[in-house]
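Board notes (copied after class):
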Amino acid sequence: MKVTEHQRVVDYLHKRGLTERYQKAKRLLSDDLFGAVSLKKRNPKPAGVWYFRINKQYRALCIREKDTLIVFSIDDHQ
């Protein structure tokens, strides 16, 4: 599965030092290892928003279009 992100997401990751962890999660998704990053559909399910774990504290929110996840926000899970 391909993963892309908006520029503001890249800036957010860089400011918080999460770029390396995010790249690792992105690689795992590209290798179809969805369980390793806990890719799940967020409630309410009909909204079509997915999320995956970057680390214990941060989650990436995304939408799915065919075989691509488009990350539009990073959420502080705490």
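Comment from the instructor: The chain has one domain: 2-76. The chain is about 25% helix and 35% strand.
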